[in-house]
């Protein structure tokens, strides 16, 4: 061994002997763990309640962190966790994190649903929607047809809105007065029905029978043939 190597070993040995002893303290907590509470600051057990008995083996201590001030503390005697709120000072055996998780999931699902509905609407045409559609809770106004008794909804999202009849009415309304035409048609129907009730069915033109229809077709064919051959007779004259 050379002199340089011997001197290096001696310096390392002297440095280790001169190093101060480590402090008699607990190791600091990991970044994902909550520092343990001191013994004098440990919250009391829930008042008026006995720790529930559990036959299961002792679980490994685990600290649950929440944004609302709740902490889970392991109780060795009952081998269970109790929960302490550092903000309000409340202690309980019931797990508050389960209810918070359910409420957060429910509210997030609602927000996601309404967000998807809003994304499906063209923002340039959103002002054309009825005012009720802007309400996230929403409501529907409806009425019953006075003639048929059918349930008629005023919502534009009903299947009847895209039916062939309603499509044609919206297209024709741009060029004609569809409502006036329908009113006139209904009036004619009611007048015809009132005339039948007043004067009887004989006052209304009856449909032709099969024999009458056949005779009418024969007469019309003979007249058409006569018109085609009439020029021959005139030429002979």
From TrEMBL:
Pfam families: WW. Residues 38-50 have a biased composition (Acidic residues). Residues 1-71, 90-116 are annotated as: Disordered. Residues 7-16 have a biased composition (Basic and acidic residues). InterPro entries: WW_dom, WW_dom_sf. Residues 68-98 form the WW domain. Residues 28-37 have a biased composition (Pro residues). Residues 51-62 have a biased composition (Low complexity). Residues 90-100 have a biased composition (Polar residues). This is WW domain-containing protein. The lineage of its organism: Eukaryota, Fungi, Dikarya, Basidiomycota, Wallemiomycotina.
């Amino acid at each position: 061994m050379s002199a340089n190597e011997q001197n290096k070993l001696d310096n390392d040995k002297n440095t280790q002997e001169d190093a101060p002893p480590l402090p008699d303290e607990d190791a600091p907590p990991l970044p994902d763990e909550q520092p343990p509470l001191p013994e004098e600051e440990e919250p009391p057990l829930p008042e008026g309640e006995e720790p529930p008995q559990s036959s299961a083996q002792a679980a490994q201590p685990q600290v649950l962190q929440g944004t609302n001030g709740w902490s889970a503390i392991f109780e060795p005697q009952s081998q269970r966790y109790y929960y302490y709120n550092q903000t309000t000072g409340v202690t309980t055996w019931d797990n508050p994190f389960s209810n918070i998780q359910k409420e957060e999931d429910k509210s997030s699902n609602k927000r996601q649903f309404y967000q998807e509905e809003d994304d499906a609407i063209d923002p340039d045409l959103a002002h054309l929607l009825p005012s009720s559609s802007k309400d996230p809770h929403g409501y529907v106004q409806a009425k019953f047809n006075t003639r048929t008794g059918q349930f008629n909804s005023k919502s534009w999202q009903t299947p009847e809105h895209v039916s062939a009849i309603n499509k044609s009415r919206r297209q024709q309304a741009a060029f004609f007065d569809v409502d006036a035409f329908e009113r006139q048609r209904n009036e004619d129907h009611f007048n015809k029905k009132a005339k039948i009730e007043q004067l009887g069915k004989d006052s209304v033109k009856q449909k032709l029978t099969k024999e009458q229809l056949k005779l009418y077709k024969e007469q019309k064919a003979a007249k058409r043939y006569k018109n085609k051959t009439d020029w021959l007779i005139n030429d002979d004259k």
